[in-house]
Design goal:
The chain has 106 residues and is mainly α. Helices cover 77% and strands 0% of the residues. The two termini are 24 Å apart. The chain has 3 helices and no strands. The relative contact order is 0.23. The protein has one domain.
Length: 106
Amino acid sequence: MDGNMVPMVLLVAAIALSWPKFLDMFRIQVSPPVMEAAVMSVAAAVFLGTAGLSLQLYGNAAGAIMCSLGLCAGEFLRRVVYIARLETTLSLACLAIFLAVRAPVL
């Protein structure tokens, strides 16, 4: 690890904010509304992408800790604090900022 905590915090935040909508995908519903299905798809992509990035960039141990922290924070957001529609947008913004910080300059 390079000691810079900002990219790690961004990945944990992206995992935490996308977790509630990602979990909704596996709940039993007959047919979610079309807009809700689109939000769940974006949340699933953000969740899986950030989990993969954290494991690949920071190794198995640190990546697993980051994913665990993100899941715990996501459960806290899902049960205690309800952000409504902003959670998926914020998770996508965290992932975009992370990629902008970590991406090599073309």
